[in-house]
Design brief:
The chain is 42% helix and 20% strand. The chain is α/β, with parallel strands linked by helices and 410 residues long.
Length: 410
Amino acid sequence: MKILLAYSGGLDTSVLLSWIKNKYNAEMIAFCANVGQEEELSGLEEKSKKTGASKIYIEDLQEEFARDFIFPMMQADAIYEGQYYLGTSIARPLIAKRMVEIAKAEGCDAIAHGATGKGNDQVRFELAAAALAPDLKVIAPWRDDSFRAQFPGRKEMIDYCVAQGLPVEASMKKPYSMDRNLLHISYEAGIMEDPWFDAFCPENKAMFKLSVAPEDAPNTPEYIELEFEKGNCVAIDGKKMTPLQVMQTLNKLGGKHGIGRVDMVENRFVGMKSRGVYETPGGAILFFAHRQMESITMDRDTMHLRDSLIPKYAELVYNGFWYAPERLALQALVTETQKNVNGVVRVKLYKGSCYVAGRKSPNSLYNPQIATMEADPTNAYDQDDASGFIHLNALRLKVNAHVNGPKNMM
């Protein structure tokens, strides 16, 4: 039997690689995707082979991640439950896609992951695999009774590594779990499980990796200009950039000014509520600027139709349905709405917030001559027409009031 494991070289995946290999008497292939986590990837090949892998794939997927996953999601203005920029959620379908491709090329019988049985990631990995390789088996040790019995906690994992001679450095002192990629860092579990704990208190400053606290950000605002073509940011301050370069540049700028911090209690797909703290500095700026660009280039009813679908789109990403036909259908609609989202947005970055400082577009639908409160030189809008417009829209309200009484509306 040959199994491909999503592998990071840390405590969990090192234990998983060895445990799966022994349980299934399998040849193990490790796969590590670089999606911007900036963990130390050197030495992984030697470590994985000492742990029991016959081969390891280490691949830089950052450009594909930004271009084919983050940017299409940003075009949709997708945000889950009004706060979460879907950083972890959007990385999983890419990792799963590449795992399936490698598994097929290697002739693997199964793929395996180390996602907990209580979380969303197990669903995201396995729904992606189901859509891309429906006959490929998926092994999830955290849903195996024997695995959980053997490893009820980190101490047992560390003891196992020592007994097996596995090359892992680990400590019991880990007050939270962290997941990082190009779009964000998430913090959960441990001390984060108390929703009364203030994650942004001064004593907890050392936890954050991507951004300074807003109160420690520069006292002088910084202005940047983002250029959009068909809803995608293609340049910053006049410099053309790839999607990856856009994200890297905005992450630095946003982090410098303390932008993109979120603390929320969200609803997991598996049914429970979960508290998460997030840093999404570049994503928060891109999301804000894109919305500002849309404000002058998108037709009203087209925008409102797309906006009505944002909760559904975000839910599909969060729940792991990136490759589902309904998400693909929604993406086609989103792509159509973005054809004229072209132009430049000037943004002010200051003390944890983004402010719009200007917008311009060759496709702008904003006409100051029509919108002006002064005399309309175009005669495009006759104010007398508003009387009939109001009368017609008020008709049903008047009829209802006459029939049922105005007090029933109060």
